[in-house]
Specification:
By secondary structure, the chain is mainly beta. It has 12 helices and 102 strands. Strands 64, 67, 68, 70, 71, 72, 74, 76, 77, 79, 80, 82 and 83 form a 13-stranded parallel sheet that branches. It has a 12-stranded antiparallel barrel with strand order 86-87-88-89-90-91-93-96-97-100-101-102. Strands 2-3-4-8-5-1-14 form a 7-stranded mixed sheet. Strand 101 and strand 102 form a beta hairpin. The two termini are 102 Å apart.
Length: 1318
């Protein structure tokens, strides 16, 4: 459609020369142009020529047309019809171009000149009568030059004509009025604003004076602030390209006789094919290739027309970087000529959207760059991929033979839903095949991949019906490749390893392992399915799974390597003849796995619907029987690990041994049974977790421990009438059912059973490890103890029931309380014939306070008998307790029965052994009674080694009745155990701890903190007088100071008592007044926060915070100095004390307060060491007195073992003498002196040398004992140093440090402060 608009483009100039002479009308025809030069009076009225043309001008027009013809390789579909004339133009306009525009459906534009359509696009535009493709007119008032050089007073004619024709080849905008309308040219489509918008976009807002880019080569559009029709927006801005032909103006003497390089690049973006463009364009350079010479100049071929490759017989054609963006344009190779096509991508990556129809041609892919064929590729010949990448993304592709000798061959869906390629034969030695959501189908039989070729991507390699693929060497299938051989395909591994990684998978009808070294390695993938396997090679994995889905019986004698799972599916039985691999699991989901090797080992064996049948011997690290049968054929299966499970839908059958290795467990869930000749042996554990597990026939236990209901009392073990089982332990809370059966308990490890017994049965206990029973028993159960210990424990008013009890010479029966503090002693009731044989042992762990009702610990029902062998070779009675009865005479009914002989061998432990003597057992009216006498003297005190342990011995011995299960009873038992063992040092340490040896340390720490505080204040008072050289102002003068301080006080502990450590930090604020030149008074407040700890027999830790108020004064008279310090403080303590022993520990906590008071007087004398008195040595002497007290308190949290502590106090005095050296070290910027000092004194204390406290157990608060802390240091050395640095006219920063060093008694402190003179 023609556009009803008129476009004028103008070129302005600076020439003012008069016109030359003219010639008549002339016609010029070149390759693409037919130009009519209108002479004077020729042409229509509005285009009529006003001058004739000279021969030079005619020649210049021809030269100009040839320049444009030679710029492009495009050929016009017809001659471009145009007229050129001289005519009247506006002043300042050299020439004007009037273009014929038509509608044109471009990519981002909708209008074009007819010149562009017929020349660039090769399409036709029909001109109506009198129409031209364009008309040009020159202004005759200007002087134009056509020579090879242009004078400085002339305008170059060729440059102007080239420029005006340039508007017709595309350098023109339809914005000729300052606004854009409905239509846009390709020039307009390439204009971009700063935000990336183009004319026609919603975000584009045209403004004059704004810089707009055009194309991608850095050019900008001429856009002055005042819109100039015909010039604005249709020219190149000279600022972006000074050499541009299409600038809006040209000066005299200037030649521009070719488009600039940037303009040529812009023309290429417009779609023109430049003369030196290295791309072969089918639309421009020819759609048929008949000779290689046609392509020799080019680095790529653009398929923008249907192309034919038709050289001579047997020729080879190299297609460089084949490309094209339209799918309708194809490339066809002529058939029947034995042609070879080299797809060479040396210069660039390329994409060809059309189809490549190869017929029977052979193809080679060379060049390091990549080629994508997007429209399909077909040939019955061969494709040899040697270099770079060739990707087929068409929907359907067919290749006779694919040879991989390097590079990458890909099949990729790209924008399509699916891409497929069929290959008749695949061979490969190098490179890779990359499939992206696509399928490569092998339709032939002779397919071989060598070790240098890789398969990667996320597609499928499919074997057509009955076809095969061989891997020769080591190969890796990566990414998400799927090898599909489900249509009766065969995969050969002739040698080496085929490894799968990542998400790669395979399903194959037959896997052929062609040599013993041929290996399929599943890696970590779990999607390898094989329906049949031949050859005795290797199946391997690293955590993955290989599934053998066999419909028919299959025998495989190959090797399993690595770690993974071999899963069996299908109805056919799988026979494994190898020795297995402990890292490989067997998972039988259908059919059966038969283990035929003489000896084999596997990881897990899992029954998930299928079966496992074992001949000879095998082992597993995990058995999971969910559904199916484990069959032993005179075989042994060893189980390891604790994750073995047998459920109700699975079974163990046949004849053989199931051996549970050490630390292994087999869990029975939902009930099951053994009714064939199966033996559960080993030293592991069988756990009946749910339901009932029944043994019958020849099934039996042989050594394995059994847990019946480890978590549920509803579980049961039914032994029926079996009498051949021996277990290594019996534990749990379920039920054991007998029907006149027997169970041998040969305990290799201790075990505890709290369940019940049902039916008539017998337990024969052997083995040295103990078996503990905490249930109610059964009056139909017989218990025979031939070796080791059976402990009966129950906190109940009802006795444990047994029918009969026999304890042989090396057996022990223990009746023990359930726990310290239990409400009942454990008792036993017998209703049959029972006896303790010579050498047997009875152990009673009791609370004698609960045994005063004359109830025997072992009773018999009517008709039942109990016989106990006595005397030296008879029964031994071990009796122990945490507490002792307060009565002087002890009398306990032990047993209801008869003692043969006159006594039992009695060993007393715990409180009974400590507090009683003369323990004796005797027959009395059908009962055996224990008697004893409480010791009159304190046995603990007799072995005490310190005053503190003696205090503890008195407190504990006289505590009266101690309730079992309390902190005090545990302490009593721990002390008694140590004392009975003869370990008096341990007993004494516990006695000292119970008496609270850590408590006096609090008082000592409070006193040490007071001493350190007074030392800090003394140091301040000494430095607060006025300097004698001070220029006096008004007195009194006031000074304020503040300091941060910290310190560490410690006292070493000893065997006599605990020491302490006090780490404290805090601060002091003070105020002092210089009342006169010689007299200063002051006051201070301090807060110290301390962490207190004490470690010794007992330990203590907590907070000890102290607050002080101090008054001080300093007076100087000539060389004498006098200082007086008065300090008072109060303390808050929150302490936790711990007592540790082998039966546990207890903690007691308390809070208390305290007070401290101290006074110090110090005398000094100044000895000047120089005339300026900048160095002074002071002899120093001081005397002080200190008193500290702590309020009484009761400990909490330890019951009767907690202490009641009375008020504590301590008073000490001290004298000290030494030297202090003071001096000026320099001056600050204001001239004030920087001073320092160093001091050393020897100190001697008087008064009390230990802190002590009066304490009593809260269980017996009336009995008080004194405990003492570690000895305080009395003689010591006091060291100190200080530094004062003036930091202004009135301020001073100071630092002070002290150390008080005594034998085992140390105090170290430091302070940093600031003093200001107001």
């Amino acid at each position: 459609m023609k556009l009803t608009l008129s476009i004028l483009s103008c070129l302005t100039g600076l020439s003012t020369l008069a016109p030359m002479g003219w010639a008549a009308t002339h016609e010029i025809t070149t390759k693409n142009f037919h130009i009519t030069l209108l002479g004077n009076g020729d042409g229509p009225a509005d285009w009529m020529g006003t001058r004739d043309w000279s021969d030079d001008q005619i020649a210049a027009v021809t030269t100009t047309l040839n320049i444009w013809d030679d710029t492009f390789r495009n050929t016009a579909s017809r001659k471009i019809e145009a007229t050129i004339s001289w005519g009247a133009l506006e002043e300042g306009v050299l020439a004007g171009s009037f273009s014929n525009y038509v509608e044109y459906d471009g990519e981002n534009y909708n209008a074009a000149t007819s010149t562009e359509v017929i020349w660039k696009e090769g399409e036709d535009v029909v001109l109506e009568e009198g129409e031209m493709d364009f008309r040009l007119q020159f202004n005759p008032v200007y002087g134009f030059s056509t020579g090879n050089t242009t004078p400085q007073n002339a305008t170059d004619f060729i440059s102007v004509l080239l420029h005006e024709i340039g508007h017709n080849v595309g350098f023109n905008s339809l914005n000729d009025t300052g606004t854009y309308g409905e239509y846009y040219t390709i020039w307009d489509s390439l204009i971009t604003d700063a935000q990336g918008n183009h004319p026609g976009d919603a975000g584009f807002n045209y403004q004059t004076g704004v810089s707009y880019t055009i194309g991608s080569g850095g050019l900008t559009v001429y856009n002055p602030f005042v819109f100039a029709p015909g010039s604005s927006m249709s020219h190149v801005d000279a600022a972006s390209d000074p050499n541009a032909l299409m600038q809006y103006s040209i000066g005299e003497g200037i030649q521009r006789r070719n488009p600039s390089d940037q303009e040529k690049a812009l023309l290429a973006e417009m779609g023109w094919v430049l003369k030196d463009d290295p791309t072969y364009y089918a639309s421009v350079d020819g759609a048929s290739i008949t000779d290689q010479i046609d392509l020799n100049f080019f680095t790529s071929v653009l398929v923008n027309r249907n192309m034919t490759i038709d050289p001579g017989e047997g020729a080879t054609i190299v297609l460089p970087s084949l490309r094209g963006d339209k799918a309708e344009y194809n490339v066809t190779i002529t058939a029947g000529k034995a042609l070879t096509v080299n797809l060479s991508n040396t210069a660039m990556d390329s994409i060809c959207a059309g189809e490549v129809i190869g017929n029977d041609a052979n193809f080679i892919k060379t060049g390091a760059k990549n080629l994508v064929l997007g429209g399909g590729f077909s040939t019955s010949g061969a494709l040899d991929v040697q270099q770079g990448g060739l990707v087929l993304s068409g929907a359907s592709n067919t290749i006779g033979e694919l040879k991989m000798n390097g590079g990458t061959f890909g099949v990729s869906q790209l924008a399509r839903e699916e891409a497929t390629a069929e290959v008749g034969k695949l061979t490969g030695t190098r490179g890779s095949i990359n499939l992206l959501h696509s399928t490569l189908t092998l339709t032939g039989t002779d397919n071989t991949i060598s070790s240098g070729l890789k398969l990667v991507g996320s597609g499928t390699v499919a074997l057509a019906e009955g076809k095969s693929l061989a891997f020769d060497g080591s190969n890796t299938i990566g990414d998400a490749i799927y090898i599909d051989g489900t249509r009766n395909g065969t995969l050969h591994i002739t040698q080496g390893t085929l490894a799968f990684t990542n998400q790669a998978r395979m399903e194959i009808a037959t896997l052929a392992l062609d040599s013993a070294a041929s290996t399929l390695n599943a890696g970590a993938t779990r999607n390898i399915v094989i329906h049949s396997i031949t050859g005795d090679g290797v199946l391997a994995a690293q955590g993955g799974q290989i599934t053998l889905d066999t419909a028919n019986p299959l025998t495989w004698n190959g090797t399993l390597q690595g770690t993974g799972t071999l899963s069996k599916k299908g109805a056919g039985a799988l026979t494994l003849g190898s020795a297995g691999n402990a890292g490989f699991h067997l998972d039988s989901t259908s059919g059966a796995i038969i283990l035929a090797s003489e000896s084999s080992a596997y990881g897990a064996m899992m029954l998930n619907g299928g079966g496992i049948s074992i001949f000879h011997a095998s082992s597993t690290t995990r058995f999971s029987g969910q559904e199916g049968a484990l069959t032993l054929n005179d075989a042994t299966l060893e189980m390891s690990g604790t994750a073995n499970v047998l459920t109700e839908n699975a079974s163990i059958t046949g004849t053989g041994i199931l051996r549970l290795n050490a630390d292994s467990m087999l869990a029975i869930r939902n009930g099951n049974k053994l009714d064939t000749d199966i033996t559960i042996a080993g030293s592991g554990l069988l756990a009946v977790q749910e339901g009932t597990f029944t043994l019958s026939g020849n099934a039996r236990f042989d050594g394995a421990a059994v847990a019946v209901g480890p978590e549920s009392a509803a579980a049961a073990l039914d032994l029926g009438s079996t009498r051949n089982s021996m277990v290594g332990g019996l534990l749990g809370k379920g039920s054991v059912i007998f029907n006149n059966g027997e169970l041998a308990l040969h305990a290799g490890k201790s075990s505890v059973f709290s369940g019940s017994f049902q039916g008539n049965g017998t337990i024969n206990k052997a083995g040295k490890a103990a078996w503990t029973y905490t249930g109610a028993g059964s009056d139909t159960l017989n218990l025979n103890i031939t070796e080791g210990e059976v402990a009966l424990i129950r906190d109940s008013a009802n006795p444990i029931l047994l029918h009969s009890l026999t304890v042989d010479a090396t057996g022990t029966l223990t009746l023990a309380m359930a726990s310290a503090g239990a409400a009942h002693n454990t008792t036993l009731l017998l209703n049959g014939t029972s006896q303790f044989m010579n050498g047997s042992t009875i152990t009673l762990v009791i609370n004698p306070l609960l045994a005063q009702t004359n109830t025997p610990f072992i009773s018999t029902e009517d008709g039942a008998t109990l016989t106990i062998q006595g005397d030296r070779n008879g029964t031994t009675l071990n009796i122990e307790s945490n507490v002792a009865a307060p009565e002087r005479m002890l009398e306990l009914v032990l047993f209801e029965g008869n003692m043969v002989g006159s006594y039992l061998n009695i060993n007393a432990y715990g409180a009974l052994g400590t507090y009683y003597s003369e323990l004796h057992a005797e027959n009395r009216d059908g009962q055996i009674v224990l008697t004893g006498t409480r010791k009159a003297d304190n046995a603990l005190l007799a072995t005490a080694d310190t005053s503190n342990s003696a205090a503890g011995a008195v407190l504990l011995w006289n505590c009266g009745e101690i309730k079992d299960g309390t902190e005090l009873s545990s302490l009593n038992r721990a002390v008694s155990n140590a004392w009975n063992d003869g370990d008096y040092a341990r007993a004494n340490r516990l006695l000292s701890a119970s008496a609270g040896t850590a408590i006096p340390g609090i008082l000592a720490a409070q006193r040490s903190g007071l001493r350190r505080e007074m030392t800090f204040i003394r140091n301040r008072a000494e430095t607060m007088g006025l300097n004698p050289d001070y220029i006096q102002g008004d007195l009194p003068q006031v000074n304020g100071w503040i300091e941060a301080n910290g310190g560490r006080d410690s006292l070493d502990g000893s065997n006599e008592g605990n020491g302490f450590t006090l780490n404290s930090w805090g601060g002091t604020a003070g105020l002092d007044v210089n009342c006169s030149e010689n007299f200063t008074l002051g006051a201070a407040f301090s807060a110290n926060y301390g962490d207190y700890s004490s470690d010794g027999a007992d330990s203590a830790s907590g907070d000890l915070d102290t607050y002080y108020v101090s008054l001080f004064g300093h007076y100087r008279h000539r060389k004498w100095g006098h200082s007086l310090i008065l300090s008072g403080g109060w303390s808050d303590a929150d302490i936790t004390r711990s007592v540790r022993h082998e039966l546990g520990s207890y903690q007691a906590s308390f809070s208390t307060t305290g007070m401290s008071f101290g006074a110090m007087y110090e005398l000094t004398y100044d000895l000047a060491l120089n005339k300026r008195r900048t160095a002074i040595l002071q002899p120093v002497a001081n005397v002080s007195v200190m008193h500290s007290s702590v309020d009484g308190f009761n400990e909490a949290g330890a019951g009767g073992a907690g202490l009641r502590v009375d008020d504590m106090d301590i008073t000490t005095g001290s004298v000290a003498a030494g030297l202090r050296l003071k001096g000026v070290l320099g001056s600050n910027l204001t001239g004030r002196d920087i001073t320092g000092e160093f001091r050393v004194l020897v100190s001697q204390d008087f008064g009390e040398d230990k802190a002590q406290a009066n304490v009593a157990y809260l269980a017996n608060p009336g009995l008080v004992q004194t405990i003492r802390g570690a000895k305080l240091g009395r003689t010591g050395v006091q060291l100190g140093a200080g530094l004062s640095i003036p930091c202004s006219d009135y301020g001073t920063v100071y630092v002070d440090g002290n150390a008080d060093l005594r034998s085992g008694d140390t105090s170290i402190g430091g302070a940093l402060g600031y003093r200001y003179n107001f």
